[in-house]
Amino acid sequence: MRDTGDGFRSRRSFLADLAAGAGAAALLGGGCETFDFWEDIAVGTDKVTDRFHQSMAGHAKELVFPEADSDEFSFLWLSDIHIQAGRGHWMKELGAFADQVGARFVLHSGDAVDKGNDQNFQLFTTVVDREIPVPFFNAIGNHDLYSKGWDLYKLYVGPSVYRFEYATCEFIFIDDAAGTLGKDQMDWLEDVLSHISVPNRFVLGHYPIYDGSLQTPSSMGNNEERMKMISMFQKLNVKYFLCGHKHTGAQYHLRHTTYLISGAGSTYKLILQDEPHFYLFDVRGDEVMKHKIYFEDIRS
Amino acid sequence: MPCLDARRITMVLAALILLTCPLLVRADSAKPEGYPTGAMVRLDYLYLEDATQEEYYAGFTFAYDTDGKWFNPRAGIRLRADDGQIRAYFAGNDFIITRRLSAGARLTHAEYGDWETAINSLCGYVTYRRWWFRVGLGLGYAAVILEGPYQNPIEFGTEMPETRFLYDLSIRPHYKDFELDVGLKNFDDFDVNGFDDNGYHLEPIWHVTDNTAVSAKYEKRFAGVFINMINVSSESWTVSVEHRFD
Questions:
Q1: ipTM for the assembly
Q2: Beta bridge pairs of residue B77
Q3: Which among A97, A119, A230, B135 has most CB atoms closer than 10 A?
Q4: Which residues does chain B have within 8 Å of residue A254's beta carbon, measured at their own beta carbons?
Q5: What is the pLDDT of residues A103-130, one digit of tens each?
Q6: Neighboring chain B residues of A227 at a CB cutoff of 8 Å
């Protein structure tokens, strides 16, 4: 069954959520690699902060941001496309739609590839260059980092943390691929948000901050961090927090900020209670409108 | 509405706790041997470091263990050391079911004053002890208070309800006057952590006298455990003194 209108069910059953959580844990764990007990557990690594500092220092592919010529424009947003050699994708349909509606760019909330190996990142780059006629910006996801993917990610895709302004909008990409921001990135995010003058503020990450009444491993877990982000987004007027990871679409309004979770925009990843989709955002000055679009509906 | 499901869980949880009340009147309600009785006070001093803070907290816990199985109340408060701001407080009761099996019910109010939010949690859990091992499992309902007076500890209406799973898998070997509590646990009296916030604790305990113990606890917590993207999310060090009055 498909959602209509804004695309969200107002009621989700406990069991469905439980299945979503369990399914997500299994799905999201796919492609995991072994961890080093001493390094990761006993000593405790803070790789998020390492990636943040490398990104801030410019040790990643330099991104070229588009320049606005009008306060009225459109862009597309989706998540979890999981490009993988030997598997299908929706990029042709997405590119055709972007062209049709005149979208200025496409934003993606992480898991661009299913495993962060050279073959997949090359395929991702090729597919995006070939099919998407406008710039494509990605927030880093956990699957992008599997198979020690960070070294390739920063080479093929770009930094883990960055921002750009376009007309009346500010887009801030954060690295919450591991379910935490770390102190340095949190301080940076607060500082950046405190100095923005444009009215429409979007924060894009991979992990949801809240994923429903049955909390699952698909949501950030540290209470302090989540409370600070929710409060900060309200005080600093963030309109949208856009994320993915859970593969199930959902929407929450918390303290005047809209938290959107996009279901997987993948042809082969299981989506619970939904179908592959993306969003069209129309910006008209201070006003932002969104529309949920199903890939099946635009398939030519 | 999403909160209906969470409220239903809360009601089931509350019913389970209330159903234990008739047991209070059972004649055979004497506590098994090995469990302490009398009043207990515990003072602790905690340093917590995470993505949002590097703070010191002071805590005080009071417990009264009766001779009976079913009425063993406890309560406590934790304050931020620098300005006295409330961080969390709780009230609850322990139920001693058998020599090895116990249960606990807790109402916890965790406050995040800097961000004008709070989390009110209602939790129930059972704990089984055998030899050095301790296994605990439970369920909680957490209401994140985003609107209105967040200081209210019994406000459970929220647009951000959450169900929490509680676990405790620990061992507690002892030698003479020393004990060592080591394990994986995602809750304590003051905090009920989220699903993706897991970690371990290490707590040496020295029983200075029969009634007084001193302990130092180290706890490290991680995000991303379920997706094997393990990254430290917080670290804490706690020094505690506990005294029991006969």
A1: 0.86
A2: B60, B89
A3: A230
A4: 146, 159-160
A5: 999 999 999 999 999 999 999 999 999 9
A6: 112, 115, 117, 119, 144
Q: How far is A75 from chain B (nearest CA, A)?
A: 29
Beta bridge partners of A231: none
User: Does A142 touch chain B if contact means CB atoms closer than 8 Å?
Assistant: yes
**A217 is written with which tokens?**
């491993």
> Residue A185 is encoded by which pair of tokens?
């990135």
For A157: left if phi > 0, alpha if psi spans -120 to 50, otherwise beta; the answer is alpha
Distances (CA, A) of A94 to A2, A171, A266: 20, 20, 11
Whole-number Å distance between alpha carbons of A13 and A260: 19
A16: contact with B, CB 8 A cutoff: no
Taking CB atoms and an 8 Å limit, are B5 and A216 in contact across chains? no
The amino acid sitting at A179 is: G
Q: Which two tokens stand for residue A115?
A: 């495993």
Amino acid at A73: F
In angstroms, how far is CA A54 from the centroid of its own chain? 20
* Neighbour tally for B4: CB within 10 Å: 14
* Cβ–Cβ gap B224/A180 under 8 Å: yes
Which amino acid, residue B225? V
Which chain A residue has the Cα nearest residue B9?
A14
- Say whether B226 and A25 touch across the interface (CB within 8 A): yes
Interface contact B157, partner A, CB < 8 A = no
Concatenating the DSSP letter of every residue in A83-128 gives B-TTS--SHHHHHHHHHHHT-S-EEE-S--BSS-SHHHHHHHHHHH
Pairing of strands B231-245, B54-65: unpaired
Give tens-digit pLDDT for B32-63.
Answer: 877 888 999 999 999 999 999 999 999 999 99
CB contact under 8 A, A220 and B223: yes
Beta-carbon contacts of residue A15 (< 8 Å; ≥ 6 apart): none
Residue in chain B lying closest to A182 (CA): B51
Q: Does B201 reach chain A within 8 Å, measured CB to CB?
A: no
Contact A198, A165 (CB under 8 A): yes
Q: How far apart (Å, rounded) are the C-alpha atoms in residues B76 and A129?
A: 60
